[in-house]
Structure formats: C-alpha cells, structure tokens
Amino acid sequence: MISTTCSTTEMVTQGKLQISNSDNVEDKSSGGLGCFGWILVLISLIIVAGTFPITVFMCVKIVKEYERAVIFRLGRITDRKPKGPGLFFVLPCTDSFVKVDLRTISFDIPPQEILTKDSVTVAVDGVVYFRIHCPISSVANVSNAHTSTRLLAQTTLRNVLGTKNLAGTVIGPGRDITQYAGENDDCECQKSFDDRLTGFNRVQEALDDATDAWGIKVERVEIKDVKLPQQLQRAMAAEAEASREARAKIIAAEGEMKASRALKEASLVIAESPSALQLRYLQSLNSIAAEKNSTIIFPLPIDMLQGFMQRK
Question: Ranges for the Band domain (predicted)?
Fold first, then answer.
C-alpha cells in the first residue's frame, strides 16, 4: 500500500511537470491563428455584419454568476482566460464555448473493500467536496473532470486507509473517544483519533495534488460509514462490555472506600459528643416516621440500661 501511494505521488508529480512543459512549448510555438485562420475570422465578421439583426441573437451569450465560459476559436482557447459572468460575444462560424460550473460539488464514494494494516477487511464509504478553480484546465487537461475525480477518490481512499490500523479507521471526528477506551487508555485512543485525522488529511492532500493539474480544488473529504464483519462486531462488543463492567467495579470499589473513610470520620466526631449520637437517633426516627410506616422503631440507648444491670 505504501509503495502504491508513493508511486502514485511520483506519477502525479511527473504528470504536472509534463503538462507545464507542454503548455510552455505550446505557448511559445503558437503565435496566433495564422493567415488562413484570420481570413476565416474576417469572413465570419462580414457575415455577422451583413445579417446583423438576425445573428445578434446567435453572437451574444450569457453565463450566470457561478459559471464561466471557455471560448475556442478555430480550436484554440482565446485569451487564456474564461469569460463571464454576464454577457460575452462569440462568432457563430468560428467560435464554440464550454460552460463550467464553479460551485462546490459533492459526491459519494461507493463502499470500498479495504484491508487495514492489522489485516482486517472493512468496507468504507465517504463523501468528497470539490470545486473547479481553473475552468480552462478542467476543460483542456482532462476529458471529464467530474468522472476522473470520482475514480481517483476511490483509489486514493483505498491506498491511504490501507496503511492505517482498524482503530485509526473506526474512530472518527465528532465521536467521544472515551466510549472506546477507559480512562487509563486515553493516550492510546487519542493516538488512534489523531491517526484518523491524519488519514483524512492525507486523502485530501493526495486528491488535491492529483487534481491540481485538472483545475480542481478538493475542499473536504469525510468518511460516512465503516462496515465491519459481524464476527468482529460481536468480538468488539464483548470486549467493550467487559471493559465497562471492569470500570464499573472499580468505580464501585472506590465509592465504598470513600464511604468507609467518611463513616470513620463521622464516628470520631460522634464519639467526642455523646449527645450527637442521640440527635442522630432522633433524626433517623424522623426519617422513618415521614414515610407513613405502620411500624415505628424507637432506638433505645444501651447506656440507660446500665443502671438496672449494676443493681442486679
């Protein structure tokens, strides 16, 4: 997986260099439309001028605020910049244009079978948000920018998440990491949480680098669902239940220890004042009588019977 990711990065870098070099060569070699091209443009202008009232509806085009138009004149991109928003003029015989939407687009990544680093097979699906920041590159450098980005997202997700452990794949942003580990395992769980965020960033960076030559900016990559095998789900549920029971027993034992210490301190305070014990008896009697019980227990101090015992 790691070698595949590295090779993909190298291919993307080489592709960028090749595209930039080819663009430079093309810019230097193309001096314009040529003599025959300008003749065709002049003829087209004459036709437009001769049929002006009719061809005006064919020459004037409108693009919306979130759109741009890439104009091709005799197969070449004019001015190396898109037109819009608003009105723009095209020649009906020699010009053609392609509209490009600049709004953010989202798509779902189909469930991908991924073998994690600890040899666990999981099905992961996600969502990608991207937008086109360079309309000319999205039209000239790739045949279908949206489809290419979808396919690249699937392979990138498999390659990147295949280098992560199961814990770094399951625990995601927005979830309480303490429900996956106890208080003594917070460091390990936080490390898995950081690995998950790092995995997201790596997927986004790999997609952004690969689609930069296509004029696409990947804004966000999120994992929607991680489907585990049924046997693994039962094993993880049993482990989590055992961990919760262990923590419950520890908490109960700590409570008993604190209660015993409090009772010890209370007994020392009561032993210093015998009247405090009698007040405690009366308070207990008040609590019992408030519940409307048919039987009332009145505590009798044993000190009152010592006088009778000494007479006998």
Answer: 58-240
By the 8 A CB rule, do 187 and 83 touch?
no
- Whether the bond between 111 and the residue before it is cis, its omega within 30 degrees of 0, is no
Q: Tokens 């928003």 appear where?
A: 85
3-state class (DSSP) for residue 94: coil
Q: Which of 99, 52, 46 is nearest to 72 (CA)?
A: 99
* Contact predicate 202/153, CB 8 Å: no
Enumerate residues 6+ apart whose C-beta is below 8 A from 172.
196, 223, 226
Q: Is 148 helix (H, G, I), strand (E, B) or coil?
A: helix
Domain segments of the chain as ranges: 44-101, 104-170+198-228, 230-288
Distance CA 89, CA 60 (A): 5
Amino acid letter at 272? E
**Contacts for 76 with CB less than 8 Å, ≥ 6 apart:** 30, 33
- Alpha carbons 69 and 83: distance in angstroms, whole number: 5
Name the token pair of 189. Answer: 């769980």
- Give CA–CA dist 62/85, Å, rounded: 7
Place of tokens 């094993």: 235
Along the 312 residues of the chain, how does pLDDT read in single tens digits? 334 434 444 444 444 444 443 443 344 334 466 787 778 778 878 887 777 877 777 888 889 999 999 988 888 888 778 888 888 888 888 888 999 999 999 999 888 888 877 778 888 888 999 999 999 999 989 988 999 999 999 888 888 877 777 765 655 443 443 344 444 444 444 454 455 556 677 888 888 898 999 999 998 888 888 888 788 778 878 888 898 999 999 999 999 999 999 988 888 887 787 777 777 777 777 777 776 666 666 666 666 666 666 665
Q: Which CATH superfamily is domain 104-170+198-228 in?
A: Band 7 domain (3.30.479.30)
Q: 34: left (phi > 0), else alpha (psi -120 to 50), else beta?
A: left
